[in-house]
Amino acid sequence: MANQPVDEEAGIGPALSYQIQRTNSRPSNRKGTPPPRDELNIPIQRRPARAAGSARSSIQDPPNDDELDVDRPEKWIWTHYGQHLVTKVKPWPFMSSKQGEESFEVNLAEVQRMYLVQLRIRLARHIGQWEKTGELHRLIPGSTDAVQGLQDYDDMDKRNQQSSSDPFRMTGGKKLDRIILEAAIGEATQRQFRGRHARDVRKWDSHMSAVVPSRTENRYRNLLSRLLVSAVGAGFLIGPMSLMILETGLYVALISTTVFVTIFGALVACFLDEHIHVLSTTAAYAAVLVVFVGLTSEANRAQE
Question: What distance in Å separates the CA atoms of residue 49 and residue 33, rounded to the nearest whole number?
Fold first, then answer.
């Protein structure tokens, strides 16, 4: 067998010397770093995907919105109570000139209700801390804020009942609110409401109006409302009396009294808040009609 030439420097064969030179000629980030596995034709084994219910995947899952964090309850409150804060509105279908327009409506009373929920959570957290630390001074501000929040909500409800339009509702039906909402609500919220059902609004102003009416306008509206109430009250007295005088008879008096008292009681229930006020007003009206029925019955008997 012929002797193969030997590398004089390394004392190795030419085939092994070429393999070492080829390996060393590859770029490397660090000295002594082995070549990549793909260049050595070693198959790479992929790990199988973990099941959805594995322990590691459950740890890496994002927190559930149904879980309440008493230190940061804002996200939980928004998930459960913020759905009715902003709604989509459009003009009434009979307003042909306003068709195609859309806007938003913000219920400020819903903000107050969300604030009341936050106050309850804060007070409950202070109670839990008090059981551990015995510090009572944190409960006093929390209870005071909760009571004040309830009083503010009651004032909002009373103010809404006294006004013809809800002052705690920013609606796209008013031009001023429409401009403010379109400028304030971001593109993300607008994209979120695209394709949703829009609630119809009968009043869709095309001119600017004040947030609250002026004092002169309030006096004018109050005067008109008092005149309307007096006219309705006079009609409920004059109507049945005229009917019972023109159409004499026991059944006519009984049926007319029953019908008018029922209608009057329903109207009073729509405008009065206290139960005792509704009952006393309806009873006073019924007493007037009963007295008139008695007088007309005696007069008819005297004529006979």
Answer: 30
Query: CA 103, CA 97: separation in Å to the nearest integer?
Result: 16
Residue range(s) defining the domain that contains residue 244: 215-303
CA atoms within 13 A on the CB side of 200: 7
Same domain membership, residue 142 and residue 195: yes
Inter-axis angle of helices 275-303 and 215-246, nearest 10: 30
Same domain, 190 and 260: no
Mean pLDDT score, 158-171: 75
Place of tokens 């109430």: 229
Of 201, 236, 257, the position where a domain reaches its end is 201
pLDDT by residue (tens digit) across 82-115?
777 888 887 877 765 666 677 888 888 888 888 9
DSSP 211: S
Strands across the sheet with 169-171, in order? 169-171, 103-107, 86-91, 199-201
- 284 and 179 inside one domain: no
Same domain, residue pair 163 and 249: no
201 pairs with which residues across the strands? 91
Residues 227-232 have a mean pLDDT of: 93
pLDDT category, 64, cuts 50, 70, 90?
A: low
Distance (Å, rounded) from C-alpha 266 to C-alpha 281? 11
19 belongs to a structural domain: no
Beta-strand relationship, 169-171 and 199-201: unpaired
Q: Which residue has the higher pLDDT, 163 or 130?
A: 130
Same domain, 96 and 193: yes
Q: Is residue 33 part of a domain?
A: no
**Does pTM surpass 0.85?**
no
Task: For residues 210 and 67, give the distance between their C-alpha atoms in angstroms, rounded to a whole number.
Answer: 43
Residue 3 lies in a domain: no
Res. 235 pLDDT band, cuts 50 70 90 = very high
pLDDT, residue 221, reads: 86
Whether 197 and 220 map to the same domain: the answer is no
